[in-house]
Specification:
This protein has 310 residues and is of the alpha/beta class. It is 44% helix and 17% strand. A hairpin with a 2-residue loop joins strand 8 and strand 9. Helix 8 packs across helix 9. It is elongated, with a radius of gyration of 30 Å.
Length: 310
């Protein structure tokens, strides 16, 4: 193997084709290896230049080969294709990679570190999530238009419109179920996030956007997340959670238990006016002020805002 100067590796999931040449470009190695054999075989080779297509897994294998003392070069697939002879097989592909790497003006792809790849993965995933969210929003707008509902531009306007009483009254019961499924998907994601942030047996607290209004709580969240409520108040009621003594009691409970996560339900329905005098604000926002001082937003899933302790 002392004559080996350039080694091409055709990457795959399980089977890897190797093609090596000496300094004159004459083939001196052709070999097929399984995934479990590749690193052990490369470790026994003398230091050489290893070249691969810049495809899935190339940067990982490149980093591994560099650790073994080899020089790694990556070539974009479109620059390899013109050198493929005959039918497209693993053997012909490996030989084409070797031929392309020997061109004096060939352009190579820079080998990326784990940190660079992680950052790129995060950017790509976020772009995919934004694209999916936009597609779902546009689809919902199109379905609502079939029932004569036209909402303003923007994601916030769409969210508010899906809970507006006039919009809901104009839709048939089956469409209500469709919208409920869209909201429940966010609830399940929020519950999974909360369960991952709060240790089993430790409490979390679910509240609404304003503690001075008569609103209903969300006791279902405690069940989905599998975490207990540190207080004895699951559902807000007129004159109870909106009162100063109860809000002070809740603050004491949160402090005593050192609750790490508070889930704020910001659905517009929680601030909708009640059709009676009980719906008038109490003017007591002790709990809201406490949460603003001691917690900060960590994540958001639709109407569910995750607040973590500062």
């Amino acid at each position: 193997m002392s004559e080996l100067k350039l080694l091409a590796v055709d990457l795959a999931k399980s089977v890897f084709q190797l093609h090596g040449v000496d300094e004159r470009g004459v083939a001196v190695l052709r070999k097929v290896l399984r995934r479990t054999q590749l690193l052990r075989y490369i470790a026994r080779l003398p230091g050489c230049v290893i070249v691969m297509e810049a495809c899935g897994g190339a940067h990982y294998w490149g980093r591994q080969f560099v650790k073994l003392g080899h020089e790694v070069r990556l070539i974009a697939p479109q620059y390899v294709k013109p050198f493929v002879k005959g039918n497209k097989t693993d053997r012909n592909d490996a030989e084409a990679i070797c031929e392309a790497a020997q061109r004096p003006n060939m352009r190579f792809v820079t080998l990326k570190s784990e940190e660079q790849q992680a950052l790129m993965a995060a950017q790509k995933l976020r772009g995919l999530l934004v694209k999916s969210r936009t597609a779902l929003s546009n689809h919902l707008r199109g379905e609502l238009a079939e029932f004569g509902v036209c909402l303003p531009k923007g994601l916030a306007a769409l969210r508010a419109g899906l809970h507006h009483p006039q919009v809901l009254q104009s839709l048939p019961p089956l469409m209500h179920e469709v919208l409920m499924q869209a909201r429940e998907a966010r609830l399940e994601r929020a519950a999974r996030y909360a369960a991952g942030q709060v240790a089993p047996g430790r409490p979390l607290y679910v509240t609404t956007s304003r503690s001075d209004l008569v609103t209903s709580g969300n006791p279902l969240f405690y069940v989905l997340a599998g975490r207990p409520n540190p207080t004895r108040y699951d559902i807000a009621a007129p004159g109870v959670v909106t009162s100063a003594p109860v809000q002070r009691e809740i603050v004491r409970d949160l402090e005593r238990e050192r609750v790490q996560l508070v889930v704020r339900f910001d659905d517009p329905v929680t601030t909708a006016p009640e059709p009676n005098r009980a719906g008038e604000p109490s003017g007591v926002r002790i709990l809201d002020e406490y949460l603003g001082r001691r917690y900060r937003q960590a994540a958001r899933f639709g109407s569910y805002v995750m607040l973590e302790r500062r």
